[in-house]
Amino acid sequence: MLSLKGKKKTMLKVKGKNSKEKSNNHIGKDMICVLSDDILHCIITYLSIDDVFRTSILSKRWINLWKNALHLDFDWTRMNKPLFLNPKFATKQDAIKYAEIVNSILLQHEGNFVSCCFKHFPESLDLGDVKAWVEFVFEREKVSYLSLECKPSIHVANKFFVMTEFKPKAFSNLCSLELTNYQLQNSVLTAFESCENLKILKLRNMFMANSIINGILEKCVGLEKFSLLVSKGFTSLKIENRSLKTLELRWLNVSGIYVNVEELQVLVIDSLICPPKYLRIYSEKLLSFSSACNPSYQGILKTQDILENCSDLFVSLLQLY
User: What are the tens digits of pLDDT across the range 115-140?
Assistant: First the structure.
């Protein structure tokens, strides 16, 4: 059960040089009560799942408002600590207890999701909970944004958790997808089939082979923003998405990078390890370029290396002056 401590009712009072009649009408009145349900749904959207659930105790009107929230953010790290025996060393039983809470909230929700975030235990993958949650959310049909993050209870360096296998075309209705701390296998490629609607893809701390990362990019033909951060497993990267406008590459170690994107406008490169002669970036419409590096690491590409080996990169920028 989620803790419902610390309930408060916000009261807004009108002050100032108003008439006595106007003052009498507003002093002590709860101004939030005059807001429409649609506005309150938007306010709830920005709350953590704990706070969303707590709103049901504010008044009779609020009891069911949360059940139509457009966004739900499940994050066990932000829940009340008494929920788990020892949050620093969560067990399988903690993952089961967390799943019961998530399941209860999802089943009580009555509206359509627009976006949903799940930060879960590694055990939630083995128990099949992550797959069940995602499939349940996708049944609402209107979900356009999904974020999944596997968060262990203690810090584990260079540890990746095998992503569950989703149904073919599972991500086809999404406009935005974020994945963090997973090892992707070939079976994940079927979930990216028919992903023409996917505009934003962010992959952080991932482990995937060449065939997987390049296969994902080939399937996401409508991608407009792609971020690849602190990821491993692949030796080269090939990006040729025609509609891509923003590309962010940070903390990667590869033997080659080939980017040929005609519509690319924003390029961000940070601390890449790659032989300069195998770095090729072509873009005719680039408007913004950012490059950074950590000099304490050997082999990090410097801005000079990028400029010398990507001579066509700044054609559009030079034409602006």
Answer: 899 999 999 999 999 999 999 998 87
What is d(CA 190, CA 187) in angstroms, rounded to the nearest whole number? 6
Q: How many residues does the chain have?
A: 321
Long-range contact pairs involving 229-233 (C-beta distance under 8 Å, separation at least 24): 229/202, 229/203, 229/204, 229/205, 230/204, 230/205, 231/203, 231/204, 231/205, 231/206, 231/207, 232/206, 232/207, 233/183, 233/206, 233/207, 233/208, 233/209
Residue 142 belongs to what domain range? 20-231
Looking at 177, 212, 231, the residue that finishes a domain is: 231
Q: What is the 3-state secondary structure (H, E, C) of 153-214?
A: CCCCCCCCEECCCCCCCCCCCCCEEEEECEECCHHHHHHHCCCCCCCEEEEECCECCHHHHH
The last residue of one of the domains, among 231, 255, 280, is: 231
Please check whether residues 262 and 189 belong to one and the same domain: no
Q: How far is CA 218 from CA 146, 192, 250, in A?
A: 20, 10, 20
Cα distance between residue 260 and residue 128, in whole Å:
39
Question: Is the same domain home to 257 and 109?
Answer: no
Who contacts 86 (Cβ-Cβ below 8 Å, separation ≥6)? none
pTM of the model as a whole: 0.81
User: What total number of domains does the chain contain?
Assistant: 2
Q: Do residues 222 and 195 touch, judged by C-beta distance below 8 A?
A: yes
- CATH code for position 212: 3.80.10
> 6 lies in a domain?
no
Are residue 37 and residue 184 in the same domain, yes or no? yes
Which stretch of DSSP H or E encloses residue 247?
A: strand 246-250
Of the spans 29-33, 83-87, 135-139, which averages the highest pLDDT? 135-139
Examine the pLDDT at 158 and tell me if it is beyond 50: yes
Give the whole-angstrom CA distance, residue 41 versus residue 24. 30
pLDDT at 54 (0 to 100) = 66
> What are the pLDDT digits (tens) for 279-314?
988 888 889 999 988 877 778 888 888 888 776 665
